[in-house]
Design brief:
The protein is mainly beta. It contains 2 helices and 7 strands, in the order H-H-E-E-E-E-E-E-E. It has 2 domains: about 50 residues, no CATH class; about 80 residues, no CATH class. It is about 5% helix and about 35% strand. The strands form 3 sheets. Strands 4-3-7 form a 3-stranded antiparallel β-sheet, with no helix packed on it. Strands 1-2 form a two-stranded antiparallel sheet. The mean pLDDT is about 90.
């Protein structure tokens, strides 16, 4: 048997990446993530289902022996997204990456989630807007 549902954050193989939330963290880092936090904790998928790196679009997918109608073949859509953070009169371009790809074969549904990283610390309060748009 195989399971493809999200893994809970308190499941031991995933929990090991959460970091140490002890008294030292409370006095020196809180509310920020601990120094030993590993971004692998953010993956709710089993490690066997995590793509190494980011999808670019165009990658082939084969879903085999998992749907009553037969095998499903598709390609990850190639969608170009643009993003920028507006802070006062300053526009900061942000690189978006496909962070999550969810397939629901019985619903014939594919969902994609993009994520941009932006280190801002306390400057977060100066962000006026985040602009996201499709590029042609």
């Amino acid at each position: 048997p195989a399971g493809f549902a999200p893994c809970s954050g308190n499941w031991l193989p995933r929990r090991q990446w959460a970091g140490t939330y002890d008294e030292v963290w409370q006095t020196t880092r809180a509310p920020y993530l601990p120094d030993d936090f590993d971004k692998r904790f953010l993956n709710a998928a089993h490690s066997d289902l995590v793509y190494p790196g980011y999808l670019q679009g165009g990658e082939p997918i084969l879903i085999k022996n998992m749907h009553p109608a037969g095998d499903i073949q598709l390609t990850v859509p190639q969608v170009k997204m643009l993003c920028q953070a507006n802070m006062g009169s300053k526009q900061i371009p942000l690189k978006l990456n496909i962070e999550t790809l969810t397939l629901e074969p019985n619903k014939q549904l594919l969902s994609m989630v993009w994520l941009a990283h932006f280190e801002c610390d306390k400057t977060l309060l100066k962000i006026k807007e985040i602009e996201v748009k499709l590029s042609r």
